[in-house]
Amino acid sequence: MKNPIKQGMMLGLGLAAAGKDRAQEMMDELVKRGELTKQEAKDFMQEVRTKGQEKQTQIDDKAHQRMTSLLHDLNIATTDDVLRLEERILALEAKHREED
């Protein structure tokens, strides 16, 4: 790879503003110009995908934690709370029928 520092800066800036398709186009162009090998471009795109998935998982986890905390703070019943109550109601109804 020619001038890896320059390439890294260019890729970082370009990919930060580009979507997946644009990133692939940039990689293809760098391969075409001989600044990256096909394998380097493939490896880089795989690394970008992997890091993107990891970031998305972190964002999803954080959003879930915040939502759970908000629901708890607002004292709003969750699906699990409602399911537990339904089970208790069914058990009480069955017990009541047995007593009659």
Report a brief summary of the structure.
The protein is mainly α.
Overall description:
This protein is mostly helical and 100 residues long. The chain is 83% helix and 0% strand. The protein contains four helices and no strands. The chain has helices at 4-16, 20-32, 38-73, 79-99. The longest helix is centred in the middle third of the chain and has 36 residues, at 38-73. 4% of the residues are buried. The model has no long low-confidence stretch (mean pLDDT 83).
Distance between the termini: 84 Å
Please bin the fraction of helical residues: over 70%
Number of strands: 0
Largest sheet: none
Which whole number gives the mean pLDDT? 83
Low-confidence stretches: none
Number of helices: 4
Shape, please?
A: rod-shaped
Report the order of strands and helices.
Answer: HHHH
> Class by helix and strand content?
mainly alpha
Beta-strand residue percentage: under 5%
Radius of gyration: 26 Å
List keywords for this structure.
single chain, about 100 residues, PhaF_PhaI, mainly alpha
Write the layout of secondary structure elements.
Layout: H1 4-16, H2 20-32, H3 38-73, H4 79-99
Helix pairs in contact: 2-3
